[in-house]
Specification:
By secondary structure, this protein is mainly beta. Helix content is about 0%, strand content about 50%.
Length: about 130
Amino acid sequence: QVQLVESGGGLVQAGGSLRLSCAASGRTFSTHAMGWFRQAPGKEREFVATISRSGGSTYYADSVKGRFIISRDNAKNTVYLQMNSLKPDDTAVYYCAARAARYYSGTYYENEYDYWGQGTQVTVSS
């Protein structure tokens, strides 16, 4: 079992930055590829970014490519999402997720993730 707790959300003006953190419990964090997803009001949850177990491979949604950076620190059992040049369209609840340990890389399919955090709200004002 992996428990995930997100933090770092808040209110920011357009053009600003935020860094989200997702802390994982247990000693198996480094065996899980991780992902970030988001859900805006009235919309379905969507993929944002994913990172492999070692951190050597990352993949982003087109909507955030060049603005967001996903990273991880396996020694701290934490995955991060650095969000720059934020836009009002980035307003959403952001979730981190862990994929089953048998997979090295992440994926943009949310059904492929076994563990989810409770989410953190990000609001970008115009």
